[in-house]
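Researcher: Next entry: aspartate--tRNA ligase (Prunus persica).
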Amino acid sequence: MSTPESQPPSEDAASVSKKAAKKEAAKQEKLRRRQEQEALAAATRSLAVDDEQDPLSANYGDVPLNEIQSKTVEDVSRWTEVGALTNTSENRSVLIRGRAQTIRAVGKNMAFVVVRERGFTVQCVATVQPDTVSRQMVKYVAGLSRESIIDIEGVVSVPSVEIKGTTQQVEVQVRKLYCVSKAAVLPINIEDAARSDAEIEKALQAGEKLVRVNQDTRLNNRVLDLRTPANQGIFRIQSQVGTIFRQFLLSEGFFEIHTPKLIAGSSEGGAAVFRLDYKGQPACLAQSPQLHKQMAICGDFGRVFEIGGVYRAEDSYTHRHLCEFIGLDLEMEIKSHYSEVMDIVGRLFVTIFDTLNKTCEKELEAVGRQYPFEPLKYLPETLRLTFEEGIQMLKDAGIEVDPMGDLNTEAERKLGQLVLEKYGTEFYILHRYPLAVRPFYTMPCHDNLAYSNSFDVFIRGEEIISGAQRVHVPELLAERAQACGIELKTISTYIDAFRYGAPPHGGFGVGLERVVMLFCGLNNIRKTSLFPRDPLRIAP
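Model: Predicted structure:
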């Protein structure tokens, strides 16, 4: 029989213990911030007195507002970017601007400040010098708040030992330092937000407790979270994806269009739309540019693409769904077969992957330090499988799926594993989907009306692209729309666009955020959305 002392604590007791621990942690955090604010205020008061007695006070201090209100025009070429500071800069006088990432005083005669600019960091040293740096200046530097924006004039030196914790292996010997924008006490530390799970676990095993910044805290303080090296890398990679997408398609004879996001009906059908009042008329936000990019083809544009906002009112609380995302969309005339669209998909994405691997090495490395991932495996010529072949692979592996239904998330992942094992690729196309699981504007197959001229594209076992040949015959289009429960009057102008002669055509749409998430092996799409919008979040 167990004694009272040996019995495990009750759930209520554990709950109370957790609440008490959270309360104590919040109390300590509040105390830490108050102490920081008091220390900063004390340093400011002390400096105000010291400045009156310091003959070198012109070499440091807070920049007055009127000096940063575009008072004078200066030659910007005299500024040097932190990322450009290398060994070749030795003995050069430089002027840099960046954030005070860390500040450390060493006695009264020396202070170190690590300056960060767009992910690059350099160590700057303020040492007491008779004609340039006073003790009061060192004290001012030591009293700077983290993340304040500062200007530094100094001379570059190359230390004999490796500098740990900075990207640039040089130092700047400070001659002048001015604070352009003073940062308040931070709700989260950038160092904490930049740590990997592996670092935190390793510290725990060593008996050291490091702060883990959870996702909601990050998103609530997104402006600070975006400053981490990983996030700097993620959104530069995202920018590159959009740029490569545009450049590749322009080189293939496409041109860019901009379609309306306010529409009278739902562009995809169904109820998952954001409805609104448009001057007394019912309207909604576009779920995709689908209908209008097809209308552009009917207007003899031939080959078009768009990069723009997409809105979905689905209550999807998953790692890969958002209510608003950036869509990369394409539409093109087809001469004979919908494989022409798949040809573009394959070459486009191989170009994107090749270019990212070549031009974003530093960014990918920064992402990998915080969120380790294996480089994406893909083939020079993109693998294509029919939907029936994919179903058969799953069946052969003992996975039962509906041969005429859509694949669920689990089946998609399993098929991705099987494809990787058999073909050595994590990027492939699955085509000829059952017609019943595709949108109303999808063209049925010529040889079996139960299937369609459609395709999905997968990365690491997750779907990123949905595409197809479109129905360009108005009578068939109206029939398909009614079968899918769409009121014809809401898409009458769309159907009418095909009554005056429409070429066979097809296209696809892909979410930019999802491409970056899967290429970088990230576990949540909110990491690749600048300011995510999901069913629970509409701010910041």
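Model: Note for the record: The first helix runs from residue 11 to 53.
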